[in-house]
From TrEMBL, chain A:
Organism: Streptomyces daqingensis
Stated name of the protein: DUF742 domain-containing protein
Highest taxon, organism lineage: Bacteria
Pfam families: DUF742
Automatic annotation (TrEMBL), chain B:
Residues in coiled coil: none
InterPro entries: Gliding_Motility_GTPase, Gpn, P-loop_NTPase
One GO molecular-function entry: ATP binding
Entry superkingdom: Bacteria
Protein name, as recorded: ATP-binding protein
Keywords attached to this entry: ATP-binding, GTP-binding, Hydrolase, Nucleotide-binding
Species annotation: Streptomyces daqingensis
Family: Belongs to the GPN-loop GTPase family.
Pfam families: ATP_bind_1
Gene3D superfamilies, A to Z: P-loop containing nucleotide triphosphate hydrolases
Length: 126, 189
């Protein structure tokens, strides 16, 4: 379970600031909507010099996704922000080319036999 | 970047959804909030709070790295029926679902079964009981649930990874059979 100590979230009173204050009131990302499992990875151009003056929540996302790609929903859980807020923030990062994003493909809603066999192999290995 | 896939874990309140996710997830299950904007929830009385149009739904999930190119997320569906409007969002693009059932409270899982049957989403029923032992057999549960589709029913104890894996594999084999049928529609028409 993620630590709730250093976040905007308080067990007793919930979010200490209104979550959409972080997004400037926007509830939808600019451009396409991202499903919850969309993968986010920090790009090479997101060096520390490039992120000066960027708002702290965006920097936090860049730090999280530097080592390995994470899903929108994982970022939301780790930063204690609602997933819909993280979608907006990731849309901003994408617009600045600081992250790369991979949305789940069309193939997942009608998965092929081959894809399902790969999943079965992966589960067997657990 | 890997392709992300997902499987839902549904079932009544307290049936073991989070337990199942933690038994197979490579990270401790995480919980997140999603704000859902919904004009009318139907069951929420908004008369006293007419400005309220969003609601917060907590959901938990885990992840399994399948191979270099694929990562699988498992989502526990919010148990309360008033959050069901959310299931459509969650179900979209999922490989399928596990419906966990408590053999003493089978009726709690009927609504989940209906949901996936209606949308033709592959699912498997995991009958969760200590050590996978119950007074009822999988066959009896299958009959009691009156499953319209040939969904597999697996006796399980989702505290154990091996048992949870069997339920997941039953679901995936069923989904695979469904995918194969899509490729070759039955002759005769």
């Amino acid at each position: 379970m993620a630590s709730k100590k250093t976040s905007w979230f308080d067990e007793g009173s919930g979010y200490l600031i209104r979550p959409y204050a972080i997004t400037g009131g926007r509830t939808q990302p600019n451009g396409a909507d991202f499903p919850l499992i969309t993968q986010v990875a920090t790009t090479g151009s997101a060096k520390s010099s490039a992120v000066q003056g960027v708002q702290p929540e965006l920097v936090a996302i860049l730090d999280l996704c530097r080592e390995r790609p994470l899903a929108i929903v994982e970022i939301a859980a780790l930063l204690d922000l609602p997933a819909s807020v993280v979608k907006v923030l990731c849309g901003d990062l994408l617009a600045k080319s600081l992250v790369a994003i991979k949305t789940p493909g069309e193939e997942t809603s009608a998965p092929s036999v081959e894809l399902l066999e790969r999943v079965i192999r992966g589960i067997r290995k657990l | 970047m890997p392709t992300a896939l997902k499987i839902l874990v549904a079932g009544g309140f307290g049936v073991g959804k989070t337990t199942m996710i933690s038994s197979v997830s490579e990270v401790p299950p995480l919980e997140t909030d999603e704000y859902m904007t919904q004009a009318s929830l139907g069951v929420d009385d908004l008369a006293g709070t007419p400005e309220k149009s969003t609601t917060t739904v907590a959901m938990d999930f885990g992840r399994i790295t399948l191979d270099l190119d694929h990562v699988l997320y498992m989502f526990g569906t919010p148990g309360q029926e008033r959050f069901w409007f959310m299931w459509d969002d969650l179900a979209l693009g999922s490989l399928g679902a596990v419906v966990l059932a408590d053999p003493r409270r089978l009726t709690d899982s009927f609504a989940s079964v209906d949901f996936f049957e209606q949308r033709q989403i592959p699912f498997a029923v995991g009958v969760n009981c200590f050590w996978g032992q119950s007074d009822f057999s999988a066959q009896e549960v299958q009959t009691a649930m009156n499953l319209r589709t040939p969904a597999p029913v697996v006796m399980c104890d989702v505290r154990h990874r091996g048992s949870s894996k069997q339920v997941l594999l039953a679901l995936l084999e069923s989904a695979k059979a469904q995918a194969a049928r899509r490729l070759s529609p039955s002759p005769g028409y």
